[in-house]
Amino acid sequence: MGLTIGLAIVVMLALAGVFALLLGWANARWQVEVPLQLRQLQDAMPGANCGGCGYVGCAEYAEAVFKGQAPPDKCPVGGAAVAQRIAEIMGVELGQTLPYRPVIHCAADYDARLKRAPYRGEPTCVSANLVAGVQGCTYGCLGLADCFEACDFDAIEMVNGLPRIHYEKCTGCGACAKACPRNIISMVPFKAERMLVVACSNHDPGRVVRQVCTVGCIGCGICAKLNDLFNVTDGLAGIDYDRYDPQMDFGPVLEKCPRQALIYVGKPSEKDLAAVAGEKLPGRIEADFKTTVDKTQFRG
Which CATH architecture has domain 36-90? Predict the structure, then answer.
């Protein structure tokens, strides 16, 4: 009995040794040599694998850069520092880079949304967006926190049914924008830490907007009359961000907006905080909005 067990152990050890030799030979024989430049690119990546660059992960983005299929400034998490390092590795000039951050095109919390109907379906924005009549505004935030759940960096907080972005925590990965079924979150190049936006996405006539929301843009055009940076298209105000200058005086426009649809988003400076101490700041970038009724046939 002891001899049999001993013989079995010897055979197993011999087989293990043979397989180890075979695996070692195979690894050396078919090993894929990674170019030094590609290894440097992989090492330069932040390792977040968030997909904000448009690729599956950091390794895939590094390979795309190495093959000349992607620019060096597509990593929202790494920002300018990683972009500069990638440009140095690739030996290319890096132009001006701006951090991309999400902007929510809605300022209506639960209290500002009129004509809300009870919703008893699955508590997600994706599900609620398939149901007509959930709320009066067919363009606005549904408030069921899909963007909050998608954020891995604790940068979104739900306040009375409306997401608030903590820009000091935001990496610009774009997960929240992808999660929003109404596409009311856009990734925007920030020319400054604070950006003025139009926090509304409703293209309906002003009288309809008033019936469903207390803060929605009514397309009155006052902003466009006071500042040529603004325009009103299809009943909705917009800002020409190509000409946007953070140093411009937007005070008159903010003061005259009858619906407080213009707000600042981002990280305020100490000077900004001192200027608006005790006040609620009364911010628009076009997005590919999708509403509950986009694919609904009217049978009334």
Answer: Orthogonal Bundle (1.10)
